[in-house]
Amino acid sequence: MKIHIPTPLRAYTGQKETVEASGATVGAALEQLVTSYPDLRGNLFSADGKLRSFVNVYLNDDDIRYLPEKEATPATDADELTIIPSIAGGTPTAVEEPAVAELPTLTNDEISRYSRHLILPEVGMEGQRKLKAAKVLCVGTGGLGAPLALYLAAAGIGTIGLVDFDTVDESNLQRQIIHSTATVGKLKVDSAEIMLKGLNPTLNVVKHNTMLTSANALEIMKDYDVIADGTDNFQTRYLVNDACVLLGNKPNAYGSIFRFEGQASVFATEEGPCYRCLYPEPPPPGLVPSCAEGGVLGILPGLVGVIQATEVIKLILGIGDTLVGRLLLVDALGMSFRTLKLRKNPDCPVCGTHPTVTALIDYDQFCGIEKPTEAGPLEVSTHKAVGSEAVVDGIPQISVEELKARQDAGDKPFILDVREPHEYQIVNMGAPLIPLGEVALRSVELGDKNQEIIIHCKSGARSQKAAVALKNAGFTNVKNLSGGILAWADKIDKTLPKY
User: What residues are annotated to the active site?
Assistant: First the structure.
C-alpha cells in the first residue's frame, strides 16, 4: 500500500513523499514503515509502542482513531495511508445574527463599492450589511494574517482586530504582503493598518499590540464574532482554540503552512470538533520547524489565507458548506487539494462531554518550550532555547565568541554542519555537511568517537538534536554551537549573509 509521508517527516525517509509498505492491518503497515526507516519510530510511536497523540493516521479518508478496530483495521495493497502530524453538508451560520433592523445601513458609496457582492443572491443587501456589522479578530499579521486581513477588509467586514507585537523585518516581505519596504521597522499592527485603511478607508481597525497570552486572550477575543488563527506556533494555536471554546464556541478559522503544504479548517463551533479533537497534545519541541527554520513558499500563505478568509465570510453570511468537521490539505507542489473528515471527540479535554480544561493554562509549559520574549506571534520559535545554559540535555553549549577565540589561538576543532544542502549554498563556514536527518546513518563517516565535534546549524536547534543523536551513538565529546551560523554572522563575520 502507499503511505503518504508529510514534509516534516521526510528527512527520515530520504525525502520520499510516498513509501510503499504492506501489511494485513494498518498497524502492520506502520510497523513495516518504521522498520524500513528506524528514525521514524520515535516520531510516530511513544516508548510504550503507542501511536503518538499529535500524529493522526488516515486510512483512505477515515481517521483510524474512530474506526472500530483502530490500528488493527484490515488493510489491502489498494488502500492508502496518510500521516497527518500537527503543523493545523451545509452548516447554519456559526455567528449570532442581529435582527435585520439592527444591521447597519449601507451608504451610496458602499453600495457602489460592494456592487459585485450585492448582485449575488447569496449575499445581497442583507448579507453585505451583516459583513459591515461583523467583527473579526486576526491573530497575527504575518504570512497568513496578511492576505486574510486584506481580503476581509476588501469584502466589507466592518471591524478587524489585529493581534501582533512584532515589527516588520525585510525578510517578512517575501510573503507578508500587508507590509512594505517603507514600513520596515514599524510595528506590524501599525504597518497593517496603513495598508488596510488604504484599501478600505471606512474600515474600523482595532490594534492589539501585544502577545496573546492566557492572561489577556479572553478579554481581547470576547467581543469578536469570528477568530482567524494566523499563527505558526503551537502554544498560541492551543491558546486560541481553548479560548474560542471557553467563550461559548466562538468559530476559529484555522490555517497553517509549512514549506509547500498547508492545512485549513474551522474549529470550535458547537456542532464541530476543536483543534484538540484533532491534536490532543503538541509535538515535542523541535519536531516541526517554524517557517523561519524550515522555510515556506512565499505564495502559499496567500493561498491558505484566502481560504481562511472565505470561511470567515461564509460563517458570517451563513452560506455554503464550511470546513466545520473537515480538514483541507493543500499541496502547492502537486497543486492538489484533499479533504479529510474530522469528528468531535467526546473525550476531548476542552470541548468534550466532561471537559477537564475549564480555564486557560500555561501554554508555553504545555508545549514544552521556553517563554518567548522578543518575537511576535508568527515568529515565536517552537524550538526549546539552548543558548542560555552551559549544558542542555547533556550537551555542552559553546558560544561563537569562544569558538572564534579558540580558532585565533590556533585550536582547530572539528566542526560539523547539519543544515540542508540548499542552505549550505546560501552561506557556510566551510565545515563538512551531513544533514540532520542523515546524521545517525552516516555517523561512521565522523571517525574517532572520542574526538571533539562542534555541531552547528542555522540557529542552534537542529544542531542540538544532532549532538544528542551522536552522543546516543557513542560519541563522547560533542558540543552545540549556540545561535548557529546566524550568531556567527551577527557577532563574528558580519560579511556573511543571513537568511
Answer: 291, 457
